[in-house]
What does this fold into?
Amino acid sequence: MAENKQIAKEKEETAELSEDGKEIEAELEEVLDSVPPEHRKIIERMMISSVQMRSISSPPEAVVMKKLTPEHISQFLDGASQEMQKSYAERFHKKVFTFLTMIVAMIFFVVVIILLRDDTDVMEKVIYAVGGVCAGAFGGYGLAKKGTDD
It folds into this structure.
């Protein structure tokens, strides 16, 4: 019911605009007829360029903005709120995953130390290798770069 009223209102507005446009067109024709032919072309070009500039300055989004209702804005805000909540949940889960990965890595490191406690030469090389990988992940490209991608 409300949509039918709105459609009828838009049709009335369009009819009024087209009537106004016809009146303006008639007035312009009268004025242009009184102008000498050599100046008429210049004036017509200027009028065409002004119409083109007017169409550029009022983008199609302006037409859509006129049709926005409070319901549309509420729907948009609800969607934005849901998106923010999902983004927060995603960041939280990412932090939990990183924490659990670090725990597993530390447990693996402790297990390697326990298994290689009798062979110190191999354990030293393994510790340096694992330490280098961890330092590269923290201080280098890995973890720091992924943190800024959020």
Remarks:
- The mean pLDDT is 76.
- Residues 70-115 form the longest helix (46 residues).
